[in-house]
Each structure stands twice: as C-alpha cells, then as structure tokens.
Amino acid sequence: MDAASAVAVAALFVWLGMVLAISFLEAPLKFRAPGVTLQLGLGIGRLVFRALNTSEAVLAAVVVVSFVVRPPSAGVVVAAAVAIAVLAAQVLAVRPRLSRRSDAVLAGADGPRSHAHFVYVGLELIKVIALVAAGVALLVA
C-alpha cells in the first residue's frame, strides 16, 4: 500500500471511530450521568458536535487530498463521497434545525420533541456504513 492510500485508510477509520464514539456512545450516555440536566446536556452536546463536525471536515479533506494524490477505485470514491455528502447534509440541513430546537429548550420552552434527531441518527448510520465500506475496500485493494 502506498503512502497516500495509507493516509486515506487512517483518516477513514479515525473518522469512523470518532463518529461511533461520539454519536453512539457519548451522546446518549451523557444524559444518564448524575446531575446532568437537559439544558446542560444540550449545551455540552452542541460543543461536542461542533468539534466533531469540524474534525470530520478536516478528515474528509485529508481523504480527498489522498485520493487526488493516488486515485482509488470508483467504489472507494463513491463510498467516501457518500460519507462526505452525508456530513454536508447533517451540517447544512439538520444541525440548524437541531440548533433552533436546543435554543428554544435552553430558553425554557417546552413542546414536542424534534424529529431532526432521528434524521441525524439515520444519517449517522448511513455515514458509518459508507466509512466502513470505503475503508475496507481501500484496505483490500
């Protein structure tokens, strides 16, 4: 395996690990910790997901640059492109809705729960599958 492909594999699997650790472990568990109120959990979540999405964007850029240096197979490119497109959809379409809802909750509003969380989690699942597919396909290539 050449250096560019190794960097892409590393970036894809680090990205995957971050998504799994934050979205599927930290996010649900923080609300079960003693003394963590909904408002505190939302405030922490906003900071954590902003940092996660920024890190994801950096890792996506590393993957793209690695692909420019050493183009992989079309399947790898498609899988990585799906992960990048999902990230863009989350940041540009879903997170603003989540932010509006968390702003309202932090301001003391009550009301129906946001369905945007379900959309975000569904997109996370798609992103996880795409990252696994891209990483594995690049490893076995």
What features would you describe in this structure?
- This is Transmembrane protein.
- Keywords: Membrane, Transmembrane, Transmembrane helix.
- It comes from Mycolicibacterium litorale.
- The chain crosses the membrane at residues 6-27, 47-68, 74-94, 118-140.
- This protein is mostly helical and 141 residues long.
- The chain has one domain.
- The model has no long low-confidence stretch (mean pLDDT 93).
- It starts with a helix and ends with a helix.
- It is elongated.
- Helix 1 (3-30) packs antiparallel against helix 2 and helix 2 (38-69) runs antiparallel to helix 3.
- 23% of the residues are buried.
- Helix content is 84%, strand content 0%.
Could you provide a short overview of the structure?
The chain is mainly alpha-helical and 141 residues long. 84% of the residues lie in helices and 0% in strands. The chain has one domain.
SS class = mainly alpha
Total number of helical segments? 4
Average pLDDT over all residues: 93
SSE pattern: HHHH
Beta-strand segment tally:
0
Q: What is the overall silhouette? A: elongated
Radius of gyration, taken over Cα atoms and rounded to an integer in Å = 17 Å
How far apart are the termini? 9 Å
Write the layout of secondary structure elements.
Layout: H1 3-30, H2 38-69, H3 74-106, H4 116-140
Helix pairs in contact: 1-2, 1-4, 2-3, 3-4
List the defining traits of the structure above.
141 residues; 4 helices; 84% helix; transmembrane; membrane; transmembrane helix; Transmembrane protein
